[in-house]
Amino acid sequence: MPSWRHLSHLVRRFVGSLWPGGPAAADDAWATGSLVPGEQALWRRMSGPDRRHAVGVARRAEHALGQRATRPVVAAALLHDVGKVDSGLGPVRRAVATVAGMAGGHEAAGRWRRRRGPLGRAGRYLCHDEIGAAMLDAAGSDGLTVAWAREHHLPADRWSVPADIAHALKDADDD
Ligand SMILES: [Fe+2]
Ligand SMILES: [Fe+2]
Question: How far is the CA of 130 from the centre of ligand 1 (A)?
């Protein structure tokens, strides 16, 4: 069961996500400069709020890691949530999907994602980690970038990404 702190954090994220704009032009240019062409195409499919979130994660991760924030690490920070584009859900229906996911669990989401209609979209939203990893693999991303998309909601003992990098990416991710 989520704590009240987590719930109030989700509410704040939700309110922030209602503002549709993307990151500042300079931030967007910095982001695309860290992405290979296939990743840039995925970046452009992400919503404004998702790109704002991603730039924040990448800036914080780069600040924490310094020289170890290599291009694939920055790409991992920018594109860890890219699988959310597949669901086509806006902020309100994402909130509903999140609550459904809390009730049904990740296993149920895995069954829902193949269905049509709203339940299918909710399932794909909740499985954005696996879906994003497959998209990045197809886009020619580095193995670390693909791995972090797949692993960013898993417990630390299941990460294959080097621990120092993974912890910095997780700490930088405020969701
Ligand atoms: Fe995520
Ligand atoms: Fe995130």
Answer: 10
